[in-house]
Amino acid sequence: TLISAWFSPATLHGAAAQYDFNGNFNSSTNGAALTTGFAAPAVSAGVTFSNVTINGGAAQTAFFTRGTYFRMTHGLSVNGGGNRLNQYTLIFDVMFPNRPSGWAVLFQSNTNNNDDGEWFVNPSQGIGISGVYGGMVADGTWNRLAVVVDGVAGTLTSFINGTQVQQVGGPTVDGRWSLGPVVFLFADENQENA
Q1: Measured between alpha carbons, how far apart are the two ends of the chain, in Å?
Q2: What pLDDT, in 10s, does the model give residues 6-32?
Q3: CA torsion 95→176→147→63, rounded to 10°?
Q4: Residues near 144 by Cβ (< 8 Å), separated by ≥ 6?
Q5: Which residues make Cβ contacts (< 8 Å) with residue 17, sequence separation at least 6?
Q6: Beta strand segments in the chain, E
Q7: Exposed/middle/buried for 72, CB within 10 Å: 0-12, 13-18, 19+?
Q8: Distance between CA 74 and CA 34 in Å, rounded?
Q9: Which residues are paired to 19 by β-bridges?
Q10: In 14-71, which ranges are continuous DSSP H helix?
Q11: Residue 59 main-chain phi, psi, to 5 deg
Q12: How far apart are CA 133 and CA 107, in angstroms?
């Protein structure tokens, strides 16, 4: 289940792409609407909207089936001295009712979706990548998950509800975690998409 996604380049204050899932896939920052796609084990995309209570307040959410992913054309400018988006923050408000398999991908930078995603919840409910996971993303609980990617500094840092829980080196300018104009949310090539 997903309530909102917020995406911002780290060096361009005020530039953001935000999606609130208020009964549609439109951007609340006047960007391009999300579109859906699907990967195995799904044979079609499945999304429904519903009203829920989160922390005592009413909210509308999008519930999506395993294998459904969202294609986001973010509209943000390149940065970090390269030809791609190299410094950015991606924030999700999510709740996994339960995960039928151990891994839950959060985003994929390769729009062919033919390699591993870039950020995951692992089978132990930690968040991260490259064997470095931290914190706990418990099933059945709403959490605000954030990743800060800085290809210039060479870091990927994960947060759960505002607390840093993980950091790994590896991002480079125009490297693996850099983004082109489109990013996939919740897409992975080998069913690590609980």
Answers
A1: 11
A2: 655 554 445 888 898 989 999 988 889
A3: -20
A4: 91, 92, 93, 159, 160, 161, 162
A5: 6, 7, 8, 27, 29, 31, 72, 74, 75, 76
A6: 2-9, 17-19, 35-38, 47-54, 57-64, 68-73, 87-94, 104-108, 119-121, 127-129, 132-134, 143-150, 155-160, 163-169, 182-185
A7: buried
A8: 9
A9: 5, 27
A10: none
A11: -150, 155
A12: 16
Q: Specify whether the CB–CB gap between 81 and 151 falls below 8 A.
A: no
pLDDT tens digits, one per residue of 55-99: 888 888 999 999 999 999 999 999 999 999 999 999 999 999 887
Closest CA to 10 of 67, 79, 57, 60: 79
Nearest-CA neighbor of 63 among 94, 92, 27? 94
> Count of CB atoms within 10 A of residue 114's CB?
9
What is residue 172's DSSP assignment? Answer: -
Tell me, rounded to whole angstroms, the distance of Cα 163 from its chain centroid: 17
Q: How far apart are CA 45 and CA 21, in angstroms?
A: 16
Radius of gyration from C-alpha coordinates of the chain: 15
List the structure tokens of 104.
Answer: 């839950």
pTM, 2 dp: 0.92
Beta bridge partners of 148: 89, 157
- The rounded distance, in Å, linking the Cα atoms of 6 and 130 is 24
